[in-house]
Structures
1.
Amino acid sequence: MTSQPVLTFNDGKTMPQMGFGLWQVPSQETARLVREAAGVGYRLFDGAALYGNEEGLGEGVRSCGLPRDEVFVTTKIWNDRHGFDETLRAAEESFGRLGLDRIDLLLIHWPAPARNRYVEAWKALVRLREEGRVTSIGVSNFLPEHLDRIVGETGEVPALNQIELHPELPQAELRRKHAEMGIVTQSWTPLGQSRTFDAEPVRRAAERTGASPAQVILAWHLALGCSAIPRSTKKTRLAENLAAAEMRLLPEEVTAIEGLETGHRTGPDPKSFS
């Protein structure tokens, strides 16, 4: 089985560096795919209320044959549930769908700045962590100004910020901000919809290592110190993705892949998406 590198949060808890992202995984297939992913070595499963498959995630975790303490479960609060009481209710609903008595990491899915309620949502997450029902808390798609505001108003620093990050959008400035604040960076859409698979730096690294372009890019994320949560619905691809954790890129390869930056986003802009 592939070894599992881990990252340590600012609260002292740890998380596997590579995970299985459940965005766009059909609800009827989720439990089976979680079991298959656990079977090939995954221990981190990234879900969200929006994905519509929390029930399958919970079922997969409960039936995968692993002790609960060996599986790390993330879910997220959607934009229309911001606000202190609303967020607490949304978390209760997620607990009910998951069928788990603990969530390892609970995130605010987007800052949704036009709604202007993410600080109250953050206070609710702090409460849930204090009550012990949620082990660690974080955010997703937050920009520096959003991070500064929640920390300035609560004194509580997120353990993690999950952001769109891939070779065309390496997010160097935001990663530096995270490093200064002690926040783990987690990459969603880490393969960038395959847009850089044929790029010269990726091809050269693949030729040197005998790896696939996808493995090279995932190894690049890990070399940057990020967590990555690729998605696949094929068992062979799940195993291939996880094997990237065993790869080691040369420093010049890491730099060259970061040089593919174009600023292209596959998803919404956090400044305006609410």
2.
Amino acid sequence: MLSYRHGFHAGNFADVFKHLVLSLLIQSQLRKNKPFYYLDTHGGSGCYDLNSGMARKNREYESGIGRIWQEKDIPDEAQGYFEVVRHINPQGALNTYPGSPCLTRFFMRAGDRMDVCDLHNTEAGALKTLFAKDSAVKVHAMDGYQALKALLPPRERRGVVLIDPAFELKDERERLLEALKQAYKRWSTGIYAVWYPIQDKAALDWFHRQLARSGIAPILCTELTIHDQYQPLRLNGSGLIIINPPWQLDQQLEAAGPWLLNKLSPDGKGLFKLEWLAYPPERLPGNANS
């Protein structure tokens, strides 16, 4: 149950996509002077050494961040993400990859706050070491779904929640959906980002149908695949469900997504997808403003 270690996959194409989207969500919180809150339910180690034995076993980062981190023709929407990657690799060599807690911490200002969780003892220990002297970050060695119940709603009243499980368990999607529904009841105005792998099409279609019928709205779905077909035993791509997406996020992704697809799937077999599973009021079919 607790065998997953993200260090084996750090910096792969799915990480790049997830963290580019997350960077846009976090940067949206900087538009106002009021403090924001960030909750990471499955934080991993927080930051990853790409020279470690785990990272170098399959070298997944080479077909992800390693392929693009020194690109020059970066769209404006992706600049913040690349700024973080380059900041933690100041010598010009790609040695470190920022996990979601590390990436978010880069953007946080005085007064902003983070709770980061992981149930794996080793990962939680790494997080505690990483943020040992950081009063803005609190680490919890606990189940991420329990954290949604225990830590929401935050006192800040605005912020981002990243739910990023390993999908090791057969009932992961069911657990995730139930936890998400309960979290939304507790804090309906927060921004939620839910990561998922694209492997089995039937399971993915079921997941999307359940979300669309959940009563939660608005829901924006974005996906990036780098292969031309679904194969259950292969990571064909990944997606993110965004609940309460910030203003113009869909436009930002329409600009950054195709660029990222072109760089990460150079043979042209992949697909970038962006769709609403549940519309915001201004986009409802038949609305004069839609």
3.
Amino acid sequence: MAPASFRMTTTKQGKWPAVFLYRSGGDRLWHAIETDDCVKVGPGVCDITERMYFQPREYDMRNSEAGAWKVGAEVYFKDGSGDSDDKGMTVYVQRNSRLTVNASPEPVTKGRTITVTGKVTRANWETRKYASYGGRHVSLQFKPSGSTSYTTVKKIYADGSGNLRTTVKASKTGTWRWVYYGNTTTGASKSSGDNVVVK
């Protein structure tokens, strides 16, 4: 679900105003649109809230539909006429990504080596499953026991099958995780944390 809000100014009585995503060639992207009633802010001026739904689990979506889309708006009036507008805005529709993590051994002696592994996958809209997402640049982060924030320790690339593997020296007890920051076609994600006790 993608929320949107917009202001409509018109001297006519309108119905069914909506913003939408489109590409050259006339393609549009949504599965459902819900639009709230007009909130009047002045003569002939309405603020409108809308929700666009994209549901690849229920309706067919192509992987190629991920990426850049332009934003347009249209309204139909009670007299049967209509109007459309394009402000040149661009938004990015992204496929979900996922990360797993495993840090071992647990526990570990201070100064010894911790091996941190994991995998990057991404949603395939056409098969409705997650598949390996190789070659991604991913950050390994660490949060010491008692801390509330993570710090990036190093960055590595996943192999061609999306597998992650690196080693670090055990210095203190804490939690390890992987973070992927996404791109124009794929959303960012974080793995769960794996806590390792250092003795």
4.
Amino acid sequence: MPVFSCLLDRFSRAWVPLLLLGALSGCSSLAYYTQLAEGQLELLRRREPVAAIVADPARDPQLRQRLALAQDARSFASQALDLPDNRSYRVYAELDRPYVVWNVFAAPELSLQPLTHCFPIAGCVAYRGYYQLGGARGAAALLEQDGWDTYVAGIEAYSTLGWFDDPLLSSMLRWDDERLAALIFHELAHQRFYLADDTAFNESYASFVEHEGLRQWRAARGLAPLDGHAERMREQFTALLLASRARLQALYSGPLDEAGKRAGKAAEFERLRAEYRALRDREWHGDTRYDAWINAPLNNAKLLPFGLYDQWRPAFAALFAEVHGDWPAFYRAVAALGDLPAAQRETRLQALQAANRVVPGAVQQAK
């Protein structure tokens, strides 16, 4: 999930403050872009070479072990998956917080159309990122005063698309080995190719690289394939949310007045919770891992992230099969897809999706 400030340039760090001053003059909110710039610069200051930490017996043994495993995955990414061979994820930054940024999503009270924000290079996205939880909550509160539904989501990692050497973060090391490796593959895929203004394309492509890369990484280490239980749960949970979102969309575009739509919205969220409980107890044998999310307040903004990260993943799987699993050829094919006009690109993706015979939008990556 890329998050960008108003500047982003490939010059050395010494030039960054001057670039910031020049770039901020064209931004719509000086305070917002200032906190983005300061947050990114703080990450740059905290970076340490991973190799030095791993080689230092005075450092925490568990940290050294996790970083060593991350470097195995990082090397595999470049050597086996043809992902960029640079310093990203070969440096480490210790954070004093559980998330690197908090993203604020917003949607109207009676619509699922997201409030979008446009940035240089990254294009338009359906969120704004904040390096401090207080800043995110404050922004959400201001939007709520204007009648927006909002949702604040903690994000454990992001990509600058190769403009900076992205560090492994302490927030990432809480994950298990598979999720840590998958994250490295996912974010490096964004560095390999990124299409401005098409979040579903970018995230579906990176999710395919993540999942196929993880499968190949486990095979190279002599490990059995994952049993898929957690992913099946994620698929079913997301399908439940997408069905609810579709019903809400029909409600909001229907003939009821605003009072009727508000009542229908409340009823739909109660239906969603009831269907979730039935799925949990019937299919998951009481597994409660999504209880906290579903039992917290629900609104339109909270549904926005779902369905983007894997909407076209089956299409990219079909594209990978077309090139017989050749990674360089796959990236060339992805770039060719990205060069198509939006309508033609979607038509091609739909054809690939149909060839794979998988219902689109059935999977959501947990990020």
